[in-house]
Amino acid sequence: MAQETTRDDSDSPSGSVVSPIANGTNKKDKKSSKDKSSSSKKRALSSGERRSSVSKPARDPSDKPEESPSKKKKRKTSSTAAAVAAPPTITEEVSPSTSVTRSPSPVIDFDGLSRPSRGTRERLEETEAQKQERLDKMKGAVRTLLECLGEDPDREGLLATPERYAKAMLFLTKGYQENVRDIVNGAIFQEGHNEMVIVKDIEVFSMCEHHLVPFTGKMHIGYIPSNAVIGISKLPRIAELFARRLQIQERLTKEVANAIMEILKPQGVAVVMESSHLCMVMRGVEKTTSSTITSCVLGCFESREKTRLEFLSLIGVNR
């Protein structure tokens, strides 16, 4: 008979014998534990609070996501502890005569002038004699420009050009002398309306502040009221007010949106502008078919994608 050979446990490299049955059991245990942990994570996510779709505060303060009660309690506790720990500070006293010079809007001045400077104030409040003095100064500057270009400002075709150009520039920048509240003139009505209102294809003409040449295009304005509506003719008038200044398209779009948001206090405002800039058509890159589109969305238009897409669809941007 063949002699049976037996293997000692000490012959194995690790000094112990690993049973294949035990090895399979360990793998199953590991797999089941992973399944349990993943299922518990899923249950935690499903049973937990839903995360807000607005992860970061929007540009408009009213669009900040609401905090859960637990977070509010934690913040309140931490703020209370910080107040106790912090030493008392000296607060600056404000005299009763101090008046507020800025509104909550980031770009519109309290009196509606937008970016008012010393020169803007002087132009707004000047007398007839001062107006004539300003015109004469501009005429002299234009005459100097003509001479620097190599032209003869005294020839027949250019005799009245300095005056014509000066008056034209004053007209093209008349928005500096206009006030948002005067333009609206109380045309806000409590109608209990809370559906979208759009005025589209508003023709806009403005002057590029970089090269003093025009850019022209169309502006679309939409808003969702909070019961109050504004006279629809006021929306093109507000657009005209800010366009009749030295501008860039990005700032013009934002100023119109913020002005409507401040005056009307709606649920949201959306402004889209498409224009052609002569500074890149007549000179520079000379791209005659290019157009520039800018947008500014505030309130519910920024926080709700469906509302924003509805507006873009109605004005024809998505086509």
What does this structure look like?
The protein is α+β, with helices and mostly antiparallel strands. The protein is 41% helix and 17% strand. The strands form two sheets. Strands 5-2-3-6-7 form a five-stranded mixed beta sheet, sandwiched between helices. A two-stranded antiparallel ribbon has the order 1-4. The chain is globular. About 16% of the residues have low confidence.
Give the secondary structure arrangement, pairings included:
Layout: H1 20-47, H2 69-85, H3 118-125, H4 128-148, H5 161-172, H6 180-184, E1 188-193, E2 197-208, E3 214-224, E4 227-230, H7 234-243, E5 246-247, H8 249-264, E6 268-277, E7 292-299, H9 300-303, H10 305-314
Parallel strand pairs: 2-5
Antiparallel strand pairs: 1-4, 2-3, 3-6, 6-7
Helix pairs in contact: 4-5, 7-8
Keywords: Folate biosynthesis, GTP-binding, Hydrolase, Nucleotide-binding
Pfam family, one: GTP_cyclohydroI
Domain GTP cyclohydrolase I: 139-315
